[in-house]
Amino acid sequence: MDDCIFCKIVRGEIPSEKVYEDDQVLAFLDLSQVTKGHTLVIPKKHARNVFDLPPETAAELFRRIPKIANALKTAFPLEGMNILNNNEEIASQTVFHCHIHLIPRYSKKDDFGLIWKDNSDTYDEEEFKKRAEAIREQLKYT
């Protein structure tokens, strides 16, 4: 896409601090550096987000994640890592080119965190089974 900032980075029109590149995938440091080494991994071929990502492109993208994650682990004294993918504005996607965040974690006090609420008391077993069936039904058509 002509106006996509990540496509411009892929084309070399905007500078970036690249850490990995091959014919299908590019990884570069996120300017925000949520934590030291925060890296974005993108497919070079534009896709808005995971909903638009062709299976072959997804396979190539995710095949590189362990290699890049392990490079971060070796480069920095991290204790763990969050691997995130935000899809659409409601999920905090701000650049509409599919990308994976690799966010190194150094301590519980490194200014990053997730809230993981347990909602298991808001549904019963029947509702739980209905949710699973709704998903299984849609998977029949994909």
UniProtKB/TrEMBL annotation:
Catalytic center at which residues?
Answer: H99
Any one Gene Ontology biological process term? nucleotide metabolic process
A Pfam family annotated for this chain is HIT
Q: Name one GO molecular function term.
A: catalytic activity
Q: Which Gene3D superfamilies match?
A: HIT-like
Record CDD domains: HINT_subgroup
What residues does the HIT domain cover? 5-114
**In chain numbering, where does the motif Histidine triad motif fall?**
97-101
What is the recorded name of this protein?
Answer: HIT domain-containing protein
Q: Which organism is it from?
A: Listeria aquatica FSL S10-1188
